[in-house]
């Protein structure tokens, strides 16, 4: 397992813990958009302090025009997909939200082909198919039985997948000029600047100083946000965006397990099989391509 793969997988694992913090903040009285604001603001503070203490040079932009990369990662990706993801959790379950979010790899593969000119290999296609089957089973599109998922919930969930995909694309461009810590710091700083003016401090500011809420907010900004994104972005510097996106489907497995064991959400044998398909997809994408094997044999 390569270094890039390892960092992406660990980052995805940490992302999978997000539902624990989000669910508890909902119970405290915050809306999905308010939770997004809390997440990006806490992460921005942590990252700015850490970067300022350890590497002041990392906070210096090489060009003002490069802010476009961080508007892409911070607004069009982080802000947009977080809202859609949290809204889906509110409208359905952690499993449904996680599964719809991870239609992202399909969008990443398509956008990467057009924008980054990354090749679509046999392993990527096979891995993506396994991911899709896993998503269908985890989200319980099959078997539908006597319950259906509202179309609006599905649309919002798919939008979270599109927003998620854009992070890998914008980050690839930013990595040509900056390291992972700088990209992550500016991503959340830009997102926080955009969202803070809309947070109802007069109504809910007092909630933030309650010990339990404070700890959930701090945990949300630190574990599945600041650390997870630094690791994922660092991993992106070693592997293709499309491959990283497929590897990151480890998150819905973790999210589903948290939903089952912590929030006692119902689960079926189909969801277990679906999680197995997602894990299989991760293993397939790590296999060397058939063409590379042939080349080695010929050499």
TrEMBL record:
Origin superkingdom: Bacteria
InterPro entries assigned: AA-Vitamin_Transporters, EamA_dom, EmrE-like
Phylogenetic lineage: Bacteria, Bacillati, Bacillota, Bacilli, Bacillales
UniProt main location, coarse: membrane
Gene3D superfamilies: 1.10.3730.20
Keyword terms, alphabetized: Cell membrane, Membrane, Transmembrane, Transmembrane helix
Residue intervals passing through the bilayer: 35-55, 67-89, 95-116, 125-143, 149-169, 181-201, 213-232, 244-263, 269-290
Record GO cellular component, one term: plasma membrane
A Pfam family this chain is assigned to: EamA
Name of the molecule in the record: DMT family transporter
Subcellular location: Cell membrane
Record domain EamA: where: 3-139, 153-285
Family the entry assigns: Belongs to the EamA transporter family.
């Amino acid at each position: 397992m390569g270094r890039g793969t390892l960092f992406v997988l660990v980052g995805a694992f940490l992302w999978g813990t997000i539902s624990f913090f989000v669910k508890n903040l909902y119970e405290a009285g915050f809306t999905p958009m308010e939770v997004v604001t809390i997440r990006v603001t806490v992460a921005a503070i942590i990252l700015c302090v850490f970067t300022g203490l350890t590497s002041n040079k990392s906070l210096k932009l090489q060009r003002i025009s490069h802010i476009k990369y961080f508007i892409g990662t911070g607004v069009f990706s982080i802000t947009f997909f977080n809202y859609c993801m949290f809204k889906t959790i509110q409208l359905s379950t952690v499993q449904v939200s996680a599964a719809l979010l991870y239609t992202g790899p399909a969008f990443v593969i398509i956008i990467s082909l057009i924008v980054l000119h990354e090749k679509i290999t046999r392993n990527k296609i096979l891995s993506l198919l396994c991911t899709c089957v896993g998503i269908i089973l985890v989200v319980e599109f099959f078997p539908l039985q006597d319950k259906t998922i509202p179309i609006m919930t599905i649309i919002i969930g798919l939008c979270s997948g599109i927003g998620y995909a854009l992070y890998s694309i914008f980050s690839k461009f930013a990595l040509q000029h900056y390291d992972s810590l700088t990209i992550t710091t500016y991503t959340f700083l830009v997102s926080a600047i955009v969202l803070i003016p809309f947070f109802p401090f007069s109504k809910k500011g007092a909630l933030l100083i309650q010990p339990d809420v404070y700890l959930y907010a701090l945990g949300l900004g630190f574990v599945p946000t600041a650390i997870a994104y630094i690791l994922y972005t660092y991993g992106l510097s070693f592997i293709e965006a499309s491959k990283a996106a497929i590897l990151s489907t480890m998150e819905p497995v973790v999210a589903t397990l948290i939903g089952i064991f912590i929030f006692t959400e119902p689960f079926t044998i189909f969801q277990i099989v679906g999680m197995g398909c997602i894990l299989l997809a991760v293993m397939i994408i790590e296999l060397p391509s058939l063409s590379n094997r042939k080349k080695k044999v010929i050499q």
